[in-house]
Amino acid sequence: MGPAPRAAASSIFEQLPGPERTARLETVHITAFTRPTETAFVNCPTCGSQAIIDTEIVRITRIRYDDQTDEVERDIVSIVRGFTCVVCQLELRGVHELEAAGLASEHFSTVTESLADRYSEQFYEPDYGND
Q1: C-alpha span between 69 and 60 (Å, rounded)
Q2: In which region does residue 75 sit, left (phi positive, over 0), alpha (psi from -120 to 50) or beta (all else)?
Q3: Cβ-contact 10, 47 below 8 angstroms
Q4: Model confidence pLDDT, tens digit, residues 97-128
Q5: N or C, which end of the chain is more exposed by having fewer CB within 10 Å?
Q6: Cα–Cα distance measured from residue 95 to residue 29, given in angstroms and rounded to the nearest whole number
Q7: What is the pLDDT of residues 17-40, one digit of tens each?
Q8: How is 3-69 classified by DSSP, letter by letter?
Q9: pTM of the model as a whole
C-alpha cells in the first residue's frame, strides 16, 4: 500500500463536517454486525476513529477456570483479512497493506464467561404449562 489510499482517506476525513463524522462513528458497530466474517475493532491509522477488522479464527485455546471469579476463559487467535473505517473510508486488504499501515496481521482476544452462563442451557427444562 502506497501513500495514496491513506492520503485519500485522510482528505475525505478532513473534509467531513462535524455532524457527518459523528453520524459515521455511530454506525461502526452496526456495520460490524452486518459483515459475513468475525469482526473486532481497532483505531484507524488515518483518522483515529474506531474501525472494523475482518478476522478469521485460526485457533481457540483450551478453557481455563479462574477459581477467584468462578469464570472460564479462552484465548482466540485470528488472522486479519481486512480493515474498514466507515468514517474516513480507508479500506485495506491483505497482509502487505495492513502492515504498511502499521496494523497487525494477527488479532488476539480473550473470551470470558461465568459458569452459570456457560452451563445454564444444559440444565434448562422448559415449562410445559403444568401450572
Answers
A1: 21
A2: beta
A3: yes
A4: 999 889 999 999 888 888 777 666 655 566 66
A5: C
A6: 24
A7: 778 777 766 666 555 554 545 788
A8: HHHHHHHHHHHHHS-HHHHHHHHHTHHHHHHTSSSEEEEEE-TTT--EEEEEEEEEEEPPPEEETTT
A9: 0.58
